[in-house]
Write a structure and sequence with these properties.
The protein is mainly α and 68 residues long. It is built from 3 helices and no strands. Helix 2 crosses helix 3. The N and C termini lie far apart (30 Å).
C-alpha cells in the first residue's frame, strides 16, 4: 500500500483525480446531511453525516453508482 501511495502522489493526474473524487464525495455527504434534516428532522454534524453516508453509500460510490 505504501508503494501505491508513493506512486500516486508522484503522478499529478492521479492526484487531481483523487482530489476531485474526494470533493465529490464530500458534496454527497453534505447533500445527505441536508436530506436527513429535511426528511427526518435529525441534525447531524458533518462527522456524523460522513459516518452514516459512508456506511450506506461508500461501496456504491466506489463503483460509481451512489445516489445522493
Amino acid at each position: 500500500m505504501a508503494n501505491m501511495t508513493r506512486t500516486c502522489s508522484n503522478d499529478p493526474t492521479t492526484r487531481e483525480a483523487f482530489r476531485v473524487r474526494m470533493e465529490h464525495q464530500c458534496l454527497q455527504i453534505e447533500r445527505y446531511r441536508l436530506a436527513v434534516l429535511r426528511d427526518e428532522g435529525r441534525h447531524l454534524s458533518e462527522d456524523e453525516a460522513g459516518l452514516e453516508w459512508i456506511g450506506r453509500h461508500a461501496e456504491a460510490f466506489a463503483r460509481g453508482t451512489a445516489a445522493s
